[in-house]
Amino acid sequence: MKPNWKITFVKLVACFVVVVGACGGAFASCGDSFNAIAAQARAIGAGRAAAVEDASTDGASSQTIVGLWHVQFLIGGSAIQEAYQIWNLGGTEVHNPNVDPRAGNVCLGAWTQVAPNKYKLVHRVWNYDTNGNFLGTIHLTEYVWVSQSGKHHQGAVTLDFYDPTGKFLQEVKAQVAAERVAAD
Predict the structure, then answer these.
(1) Domain 29-181 adopts which CATH fold?
(2) How do residues 114-140 score in pLDDT, each as one tens digit?
(3) What's the distance, CA 161 to chain centroid?
């Protein structure tokens, strides 16, 4: 019996769809993107981030954090995650990491100004594995300083991981560097 090319093609397409669909569950959500940062930190061997220089020393003006930023998280000088962040008036923030959006890639945070040009951001993230099992929470804390020009910010990031009972598991430190995305 001669093979039918149409049936063979349909079988190949069906296999491709099944493989792609099965892989979809392994992509990162907001919490998983922070797990990826922790994994990168372990791979690099960095338990602590390098000291972060206060960017507000390039002038004494008060620049606002409000706006859209292109952000990179760094460990040992290597970028381990990229995102867009919107710091909103009123103290809320939206973080959109460069991960597969099918599993969720939006994180929410709250921020406050702690000094001229200096801001504190917190996220509280539910952490699940790729099978949907609850692993606990991740607490992200950022301290950033906006440059005098208002076009850049940099700072320190800490990720604290907790199990479902609230027991502390690990801490990961990184740096953050960002460039403002202007509408012009």
Answers:
(1) Lipocalin (2.40.128)
(2) 999 999 999 998 988 888 899 999 999
(3) 14
